[in-house]
Design a protein that fits this description.
Length: 152
Amino acid sequence: MDNVKKQQAIDALNHIMELELAGVVRYTHYSLMVYGYNRIPIVSWLKGNADESLAHAHKAGELVTLLGGHPSLKIGALLETEQHDIGDILRESLDLETTALSAYYALLKIVEGGSVLLEEYAREMIVAEELHLDEVNKMLRRPGAIEVFEAS
């Protein structure tokens, strides 16, 4: 991989790291804002997502250093919508995961044909994000609904 592509990959990985770190903060916040009868399983699921986001951020940072770059100390956007209904939280999660998915696709485009390691990493993360998006989408459906949830 030439130096220009390497720097683009470092920048893309740092962006991913920032998005994933924002995910840690957001999912942790969401887990604190859940109330009601279904609190325990939902809080557990949100905490799991925070842990997963931290692992994803760490992996992206490791790849930055593998390429000789400096991991970012920045964090992605943290917007407080003041909406704490489970549906609102899940819709925000859907947006967050869609943004992360786009970032992984952007990385794949940069590294294709230049690094099998980074290609495989990007593809693995795309699979994980798409499965997570499906999980959130299914949670947003009304019980018994089989059609894909579409945000209005």
